[in-house]
Amino acid sequence: MTKSAELKGSSFTLSALHLVDGNIQQATDFLKEKVEQAPNFFAAAPVVIDISQAGDTIDFVALQSGVKDAGMIPVGISGCKSAHLQAQAKQAGFAVMNAARQAKAAEPEMTPTKIIRTPVRSGQQIYAKNSDLIIMNHVSAGAEIIADGSIHVFGTLRGRAIAGASGQRQAHIFSHNLQAELISIAGNYWLSDKINPEFWGKGVVISLAENNLNIEHLAL
Fold it and tell me: Coiled-coil stretches, from where to where (predicted)?
């Protein structure tokens, strides 16, 4: 019998919106601002909403509508232990995601480093699947470089750099001249306005520590 489809386990990095209270309008306004700041990164991106701090009364229909209006795609909720709230969320069209029940995905087998010697132009996207990425030239504004491992840029980094794209928290970003629109490791990101001016235009190494990006000067 010919297979028409297969269902397999997989692993994806999703953005997570943490509700700190029940104010849905404030939370979705925040999302809209982020989408407007970096539409190529956030527009139509899937998002999980963590409701562990949102209280016992949540309008899930309004939450789903607000996330969609902000320009992202709501796929599920997390941090919900109440069976009553879970039922309401499912009725509104959310998946209920429970990290404690999810099997740990196997680490992908890493492949040889991907090396790009030419400039990465605006509008280009380079992806190093299951490997590190080395750019031996400049990355223009509007370009996007992505790696499941670490990223090394020997020229000026003006575009978007996304390392640890499949969730590898040990990934790093190295740049000899940091002027990036966005930097991200394992789903944790900074837009350009979050980068300390002390590091702007300098050689840096960026890592992840306790769910926060950490930036240091690159010793050359």
Answer: none
